[in-house]
């Protein structure tokens, strides 16, 4: 193949993808890989120095997200200085948010694309190689990309399927509605087909993904509009479906049907990530969370009514503008009343482009630090207590991979606890009984239960 100057183009052989952020980005990166493998036969490498194409799938949720992207880009520039034919692309939410500003600040970046346009990557790469021009594609077609993605590949035993895009909740601290667009749900038939393809490719633990996954409202196979619970029942009935999960949920989209689904769908695993962010009604209102603490308690109570041992995880933000000591105590009270298996805690920092960024960030950093530590300490105690309750139990472990130590394997329980145990690598991909003998902060130690 030659460009307009008849100069031979180096073949494209290798691809490096760096993924930041959430499970949806993990899914998107896997689909980018599928696209580039299909179009160019690229081989994935884990060292950018060895890559012919470098793609960054970015996240704008975390603090200083843009600066972290530019820091990595600076390192990739050094590679491109030595190999000018290297193609560098920046995608994801930072790509969507920053657009052409990325190429103004880092002119060596060839492609900027958003979460809704990565299906065009093969054509973008072709244009770069043919025309030697920089490309920015950050428009927001609805779910066009899903019509252009190849059959998914599976590495290991886990698989992900995005069932909807965007978010309509507009929490004041969050940039996602502006980078991923309005909520739109994929047709159920498309989702079921992709799940079937993952099962056929060897996936045994499959997660359905969405920014507000339980807000799913898509066209069903019967022509009616399905809610999320109806979709779960359909996915759970697929032949070969072993373990089914979903993330991330919103408290205001929790329904009785969804709570009942945990008890009625054998494949639906007993764990849920249900972010609350704060235990203070005043702060929840300021965050535009659309629920109050009592709404959250009702959702938890209904989940536990149908599945008493369901594993709960959540997200918390401390130091949101206006948060008082009393507001923080309300968050601590909520944590103690609910009791969590896992949680993620963050100090508030303003995100450019969000409504909350216009408010005065008036909680001192040392106060944020202190509150964060108190929450982490409380949650660490809760997590350890719940881990210790597993000691002595025999649990079904889906073996995922070899462990870090020789002879070790690791896998997940139905409620997503990580278990390490000694075993033969031939067990990878199987679900086996393991007796828990020791608990740690974030994992368990077990012993393989041998058949009589």
The proportion of residues in beta strands is 15-25%
The CATH topology of the largest domain corresponds to Rossmann fold
Report the CATH C-level class of the largest domain: Alpha Beta
Computed Rg: 23 Å
Q: Extract low-pLDDT stretches.
A: 1-6
Q: Percentage of helical residues? A: 25-40%
Terminal CA distance: 64 Å
How many β-strand runs? 21
Q: Strands of the largest sheet, in order across it?
A: 2-1-3-4-5-6
Number of continuous helical runs: 13
CATH superfamily of the largest domain: Methylthiotransferase, N-terminal domain
Mean pLDDT: 93
Total number of domains: 4
Q: So what's the overall shape?
A: globular
Largest sheet report: 6 strands, parallel
Oligomer state equals: single chain
Helix-and-strand structural type = alpha/beta
**CATH-level-2 architecture of the largest domain:** 3-Layer(aba) Sandwich
Describe the 3D structure.
The protein is of the alpha/beta class and 452 residues long. It has four domains: 14-137, Rossmann fold; 151-269, Transcription Regulator spoIIAA; 273-389, Transcription Regulator spoIIAA (2-Layer Sandwich); 394-448, Beta Barrel (OB fold (Dihydrolipoamide Acetyltransferase, E2P)). 34% of the residues lie in helices and 22% in strands. It contains 13 helices and 21 strands. The protein has helices spanning 23-40, 65-82, 92-98, 100-105, 121-131, 176-179, 188-200, 228-236, 256-264, 281-286, 293-306, 325-338, 365-388, and strands at residues 14-19, 43-44, 53-58, 87-91, 111-113, 135-137, 158-162, 164-165, 184-185, 205-209, 217-219, 225-227, 243-247, 271-273, 311-318, 342-347, 394-402, 408-412, 418-422, 431-439, 444-448. A six-stranded parallel β-sheet has the order 2-1-3-4-5-6, sandwiched between helices. A five-stranded mixed β-barrel has the order 17-18-19-21-20. The protein is globular. The chain starts with 13 loop residues before the first strand and ends with a strand. The relative contact order is 0.07. The model is unreliable at 1-6 (pLDDT under 50).
């Amino acid at each position: 193949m030659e460009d307009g100057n008849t100069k031979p183009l180096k073949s494209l052989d290798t691809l490096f993808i760096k993924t930041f952020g959430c499970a949806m980005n993990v899914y998107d990166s896997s689909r980018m890989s599928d696209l580039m493998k299909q179009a160019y036969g690229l081989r994935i490498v884990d060292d950018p120095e060895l890559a012919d194409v470098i793609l960054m799938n970015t996240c704008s949720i975390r603090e200083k997200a843009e600066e972290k992207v530019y820091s990595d880009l600076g390192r990739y520039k050094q590679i491109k200085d030595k190999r000018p034919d290297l193609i560098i692309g920046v995608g994801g939410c930072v790509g969507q948010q920053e657009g052409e500003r990325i190429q103004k600040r880092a002119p060596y970046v060839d492609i900027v694309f958003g979460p809704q346009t990565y299906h065009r990557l093969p054509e973008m790469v072709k244009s770069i190689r043919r025309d030697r021009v920089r490309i920015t594609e950050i428009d927001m077609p609805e779910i066009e990309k899903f019509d252009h993605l190849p059959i998914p590949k599976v590495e290991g035993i886990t698989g992900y399927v995005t069932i909807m895009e965007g978010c309509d909740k507009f929490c004041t601290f969050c940039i996602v509605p502006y980078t991923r667009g309005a909520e739109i749900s994929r047709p159920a038939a498309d989702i079921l087909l992709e799940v079937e393809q993952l099962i056929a490719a060897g996936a045994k633990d499959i997660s359905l993904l969405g920014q507000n996954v339980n807000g799913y409202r898509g066209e069903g196979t019967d022509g009616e509009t399905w809610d999320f619970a109806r979709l779960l029942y359909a996915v759970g009935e697929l032949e070969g479906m072993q373990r089914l999960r979903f993330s991330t949920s919103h408290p205001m989209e929790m329904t009785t049907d969804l709570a009942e689904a945990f008890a009625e769908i054998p494949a639906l695993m007993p764990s849920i990530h249900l972010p609350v962010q704060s235990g203070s009604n005043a702060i929840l209102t300021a965050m535009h969370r659309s629920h109050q603490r009592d709404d959250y308690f009702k959702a938890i109570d209904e989940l536990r009514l149908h599945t008493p041992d369901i594993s709960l995880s959540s997200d918390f933000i401390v130091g949101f503008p206006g948060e008082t000591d009393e507001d923080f105590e309300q968050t601590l009270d909520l944590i103690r009343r609910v009791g969590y298996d896992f949680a993620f805690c963050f100090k508030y920092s303003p995100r450019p482009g969000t409504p909350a960024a216009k408010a005065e960030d008036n909680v001192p950093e040392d106060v944020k630090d202190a509150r964060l530590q108190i929450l982490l300490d409380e949650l660490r105690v809760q997590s350890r207590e719940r881990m210790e309750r597993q000691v002595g139990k025999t649990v079904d472990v889906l073996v995922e991979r070899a462990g870090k130590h020789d002879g070790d394997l690791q896998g997940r329980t139905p409620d997503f606890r990580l278990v390490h145990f000694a075993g033969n690598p031939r067990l990878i991909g199987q679900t086996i009984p393991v007796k828990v003998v020791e608990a740690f902060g974030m994992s368990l130690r077990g012993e393989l239960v041998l058949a009589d």
